[in-house]
Amino acid sequence: MPAIEDPAAFITRETRVRPVPHAEEILLHVADEAMELWQKTEEDLGKLGLAPPFWAFAWAGGQGLARYLLDNPGQVAGKRIVDFACGSGLVGIAAMMAGASSCHAVDIDPFALTATRLNAALNKVSISVETADITEARLPEADLVICGDVFYDSQMAGKVLRFLDRLQEAGIEVLVGDPGRSYLPRERLSELADYRVPVIGALEDNEIKHTRVFRLEKK
After folding, report:
1. pLDDT for 128-178, tens place per residue?
2. How many C-beta atoms lie closer than 10 Å to residue 97's C-beta?
3. How far apart are CA 167 and CA 141, in angstroms?
4. Alpha-carbon distances of 108 from 68, 86, 112, 195, 211, rounded to whole Å
5. Is residue 22 included in any domain, yes or no?
6. Which of 15, 48, 206, 49 is nearest to 119 (CA)?
7. Which of 58, 89, 105, 148 has minimal Cβ neighbours within 10 Å of its Cβ?
8. pTM for the full predicted model
C-alpha cells in the first residue's frame, strides 16, 4: 500500500458521516466497515507506523460524556475545555455545542487530530488541536479537562491518573466517561450519570454498554 500523504483524504475515503447513536445532534466521520478498517490499519497502515484507528469510532465512554454535556450545559458553559486523548473529537464537539468558550483537543495520533478538525467542521464548531503527549508536560490552561475511554490499558491508566491528579492539584476539574473498563479507578470517582449506549459489537463485548460519567475526586 502506498504511503499516506493526506490524512484528511484517507479519513474521508474510509469513513461515512453519521449521527452519533447516543448524541444524535453530533455528526462524525466513522468507519463504514469497522473491522475492515481496523484490520487495514493494523496490517497495512501499521507498516507506516500509524496507530489503530481509535478516531474512527464513537466509543462508549465518549458517547456517554457527550450526552451528559449536551444535557447539562452548565458543566461547560463559558469554560476553557481540554479534550484529552480526543480520538474523533466527539466530547470536545459536545462541549462547544453546550456553550464552552473554547476547546483544545489533544491526542498522540495525528490522524485523530485530523479527524477532530473534520468532525468539528461538520458540526460548525471551532476546536484547536495538538498532537502531543501532555501527561508529563506543563499543565494546560483550562477550567475543565474531559476524557472518555482512557482507562483501558494498565500502563496508560497509571500515567493518565498521575496527570489528572496534577490537574486537580492545580484546581482544574476532571470529568470522565467510561463503560467500566478494566483499569478504571472506581474508588476515586463520583458518578454523575449513567446511560445504555449503543456501540459496535465487533469491537466491544456487547452491542449495548452500560456507560457512566464521573467526576474525579481528590486523593
Report:
1. 999 999 999 999 999 999 999 999 888 889 999 999 999 999 999 999 999
2. 19
3. 10
4. 25, 9, 8, 28, 24
5. no
6. 15
7. 58
8. 0.92
Range of the domain at 139: 59-216
Residue type, 154: S
Q: Write b or e for each residue in 110-137: b if 16 or more Cβ atoms lie within 10 A of its Cβ, otherwise e.
A: ebbbbbbbbbbeebebebebeeeebbee
| Distance from C-alpha of 214 to C-alpha of 190, rounded to nearest angstrom | 5
The answer to whether 200 touches 37, Cβ cutoff 8 Å, is no
Q: Is residue 102 part of a domain?
A: yes
| CATH number, residue 123 | 3.40.50.150
- What is the phi-psi region of residue 171: left when phi exceeds 0, alpha when psi lies from -120 to 50, beta otherwise? left
Which of 114, 92, 172, 184 shows the shortest CA–CA distance to 138?
172
Please report whether residue 27 resides in a domain: no
